[in-house]
Amino acid sequence: MKVISSLSVCFVVLLIGLATVQVSSQDVSTDYGKYKLTKRWQTDDNIYHYSAEHQGSQDNYMSNSPIVKNLHMIVSFHDDKTFRIKVLDNGHARWEIPERTPFPHFASPKTIPVESGCCNVDVVDYPFSFAVRRKDTNEVLFDTKNQQFIYSNFYIELSTSVPSEFVYGFGERNSPFRLTSGVHTIWGRDDPRIMHHGDGGSNTYSHHPVGLIRDKKGDFFLTLMRNSNAMDVVISEGTQLTYKMIGGIIDLVFFVGDKNPDTVIKSYHNYLGNFTMMPFWSMGYHQSKWGYSSHQIMEDVVTRYDENDIPLDVIWSDIDYMIEKEIFTIDEWRYPCDSMKELMTKHKKKWVPIIDPGVKQENARGPGADEGLKRDVFLNLIMEIT
């Protein structure tokens, strides 16, 4: 099965913590990854830029995913311990996670001189690769040299070596805390039957491509792959890490710390904007269940809780309350708004109707589909079975 995105691709690499940039050559390992740096420059905002052209003989990865011929790599420091690597398709617009709330982003675009960063970045001109190296310990944290590198229109693969087998994170896992070799899939999918149990390859419920890694000196660093597409994070031989993504761009944010993992985790939380304090009622007793198909059923459930003196502060509705499960709708025949308000007031409960991102387009389209088409906000996918 091939997954084809209608969006074009951008390739930008932001390398942070760069004190010096060294250029050298290496033996080519794959034809797909043959890129050669053709230009490098620095702008007044303390950002390094690089242009690279594809030198390989193949025009496509597999049968119908054109190789991106021109890449733009960007290196920037946001503070002395936080930096970014971004790789874009030069001149073409690919999907990127927006640089605004509620998405993770830097609160300020301000950058610092690369010389002030905690790391050096060594850039190889042909075939293109980069390595991130701590200045204080000289330890290499991330090294793409002699690794598989594919940047095509519908598939991106970036491989790197990491300093140790102590790798944690990368999505939801019902498995040992430290990740073992295997395929760790990151793809938000509402299917509770598919949960990772340590055997690799299972989908996760949420999308969280964040990895915590300990180096040989015992110091920690954290990486965020700022990409919302389905991806596999493959760990092999304990110290080989590969990102496989079906769209978007390469957008790596690095957080470099010390021997306490809390240091980089706090830096990451600061980058996210930290957390909003929850309302007091949200910390009470909650009840949620699929199948409450009417206001009368919900009232019976809440009443029975009260009659049996069972604590209940909040009751949730699954997508039963919608009109034929159409997002942004309420079936007011089954859930009259006045009756729901009266129910919650009488029993002194909170009601949370969930919002599901599925947009219905069968038969007569609802307001979610109509508004999305009007605003042209949908990601279009073409599925081909061969």
Largest sheet: 8 strands, antiparallel
Compute the separation of the termini in Å. Answer: 6 Å
Radius of gyration: 24 Å
Strand order of the largest sheet: 3-4-7-8-20-17-16-14
| Poorly predicted tracts of residues | 1-29
> For the record, what is the CATH homologous superfamily label of the largest domain?
glycosyl hydrolase (family 31)
Helical content class: 10-25%
CATH class of the largest domain: Mainly Beta
Report the order of strands and helices.
EEEEEEEEEEEEEEEEEEEEHEHEHEHE
Proper CATH architecture of the largest domain:
Sandwich
Which structural class do the helices and strands define?
A: mainly beta
At CATH level 3, the topology of the largest domain is Immunoglobulin-like
User: Which overall shape is indicated by the principal axes computed on the Cα atoms?
Assistant: elongated
Number of helices: 4
Q: Please, how many domains?
A: 2
